[in-house]
Amino acid sequence: MKMRLILASVFIPLGIIIAAIPENTTKPFKLTAEELLDEVKDGTQFVSTDELADMLVQKDPSLQLIDVRSQAEFEKYSLPGAINIPLTQILSDEYEEYIDQGVKMNVFYSNGNLKANEAWMLTRQLGYENNFVMQGGLNYWAETILNPQAPKSVMADDEIAKYDFRKGASAALGGGNAVVTNTNTVKKTKPTIKKRKKKKRAAGGC
Amino acid sequence: MSEVKKTKYFNPYIGGVLLGLVLLAANFVSGRGLGASGAIKSAVVSTVNTVAPSHAENSAFYKNYNESHENPMKSWLVFQMMGVLVGGFLSGAFAKRLKFKVEHSPKITSKRRIIFAILGGMFFGFGSQLGRGCTSGSALSGMAVLSVGGFLTMACIFGTAFALAYFFRKNWI
Amino acid sequence: MAPLIVNEIISPDTNLLIAFLIGIGFGFVLEGSGFSSSCKLAGMFYGYDTTVLKVFFTAAITAMVGMLFFSLFGWMDLDFVYINPTYVTSAIVGGVVMGVGFIMGGFCPGTAFCAISIGKLDALAFIGGLTLGIVFFTEGYPLFEEMYKANFIGTPTMNELLDIPRGVFALGLILMAFAMFWVGEWAEKKFPREEY
Question: Which Gene3D superfamilies does the record associate with it (chain A) (predicted)?
Answer without folding.
Answer: Rhodanese-like domain (3.40.250.10)
